[in-house]
């Protein structure tokens, strides 16, 4: 989205991008109506619906295939070794979902570890100062810490299709400013096409945005499959977001995080379909 804005595909007068250092304040601002749209993981959207359900998921941004990870201090090579130890995570963010699935697949439960609430912008300091033995986090922090010797003991490649990033928009905004949302989705696709066509230039832009060396960008990209037109067409045709929404809700319910099931009506891909139809007609 920032690339789309920087190269002129995104009209800043229509859609203004707002930076957040972590997911928690962004979710709070969205729930309170401070912002009209947000980029969330699907499980975050499911949990947000318990606070405010008048929003819609309008676009599949990407699928995490290793970008989200449990990152441990060098002395720990498995989740079992962290039994009784401290794991930092953003409790309102995707870290809770990731850790829950990691524990489940390792035959462990929440009582086997100590969870320490850390916003994303607090995690690097806490980890490097030894305040926690591990963190549940994501790129670009994953690459920075592993470059210094930290170990990845679980990542999202082990739970394919479960951690998805989506764009959510308030229902009233979707009704009243449909053209702006359509233009934003179109700008997203154009920016992805630009990234593919101008890889070296895009790599440099992404490196500056993330504050990492250019050589690390390729590793970051490998951990995410971006939600291009093809992925979103499949999502529409196969009702993927609706089924993933239900699956995420069930996992969160089983973990004791969510009391109610998610409503498939949260997914509204009608604007996306308009964009895809226009792209197909070109």
Structure in a nutshell:
By secondary structure, the protein is an alpha+beta fold.
Give the SSE order as H and E letters. Answer: HHEHEEEHEHEHEEHHHHEHHH
* Residue windows where pLDDT falls under 50 for at least 5 positions: none
Distance between the termini: 23 Å
Beta-strand segment tally: 9
Counted by DSSP, the helix tally is 13
The overall pLDDT average reads 92
SS-based structural class?
alpha+beta
Spatial strand order of the main sheet: 5-4-6-3-7
Global shape:
globular
Radius of gyration, whole Å: 19 Å
Largest sheet: 5 strands, mixed
The percent range for strand residues is 15-25%
Helix content: 40-55%
What are the main properties of this structure?
282 residues; alpha+beta; five-stranded mixed sheet; 9 strands
Would you give an account of this structure?
This protein is of the alpha+beta class and 282 residues long. Helices cover 47% and strands 17% of the residues. The strands form 2 sheets. Strands 5-4-6-3-7 form a 5-stranded mixed sheet, sandwiched between helices. The protein has a 4-stranded antiparallel sheet with strand order 1-8-2-9. Helix 3 crosses helix 12, helix 8 (178-197) packs across helix 9 (199-210) and helix 8 packs across helix 13. The radius of gyration is 19 Å and the shape is globular. The two termini are 23 Å apart.
List the helices and strands and how they pair.
Blueprint: H1 2-6, H2 23-31, E1 37-41, H3 42-48, E2 55-64, E3 68-72, E4 86-89, H4 94-105, E5 114-117, H5 120-128, E6 134-138, H6 141-147, E7 151-155, E8 164-170, H7 171-176, H8 178-197, H9 199-210, H10 214-222, E9 224-226, H11 229-238, H12 240-254, H13 270-281
Parallel strand pairs: 4-5, 4-6
Antiparallel strand pairs: 1-8, 2-8, 2-9, 3-6, 3-7
